[in-house]
Model the fold of this input.
Amino acid sequence: MSAPPLIVLTGAGISAESGLATFRDKNGLWERHRVEELATPEAFAADPVLVHRFYNARRAQLADPAIRPNAAHLALARLFAAWPAPALLVTQNVDDLHDRAMPGSPALLHLHGELGRIRCTACGRQQAWRGDLSVETPCPACAVTGRLRPDIVWFGETPRGLARIEQAMAGCRLFLSIGTSGQVYPAAGFVAALRGRAERIELNLEPSLGSHLFDESRQGPATALVPAMVEELLARWA
Ligand code: OAD
Done:
């Protein structure tokens, strides 16, 4: 039998052991901040200084040399390099740890945007951005001031790559969900949509909200579970 077309979904849990906070765990980002004060277009319109400060701090953290892809990101890079069937890695994460583990891979899709990119709401230009952003930063393309924003998908906005995901879902026969609490749609709905069509496996520190929807749920840290899963899959299919 040939290898099954694959979709891997990742969330904040895969980057936790690299030193990046998750959203909903104890000490998670949404325990310290209110989502509606930071991650909505309305929040940005009401208090852009606060929203810029939050994302500037997170962008700066990514530049810290101590923050690196961990064994789970690296194992997925091995899996995607060797997988002999169509494969898509959908990450909800706005960090760049998958990108660093598998540079330039066309299989990687950032459903919720990227911390390392910004967008001008005056001219529409998107570009890579490493430093801080403020209400005084002029757009490098159109020079208008005060219209730059993180290229992040906020609540109420349309996630990226939905057409591509729909196409991959149609052919998918193996689905892995890694380090996500399964509370944010559309990603939280993938497992139910694949029912009866794909083998669905969850790898998470604890059972997620939708754990019962999976054919198999393994609990533990991503740096242990993901490399072991990847070895199993490659031994079976590659
Ligand atoms: P959450 O913080 O909601 O969930 C993280 C999950 O990872 C939890 O179920 C943890 O148990 C698990 N976890 C923590 N440490 C882990 C580890 N070392 N190994 C394996 N699993 C671990 O994060 P997401 O599900 O990614 O969206 O959140 C989804 C979206 O909600 C985010 O993309 C973000 C947020 O609001 C936006 O900002 C638009």
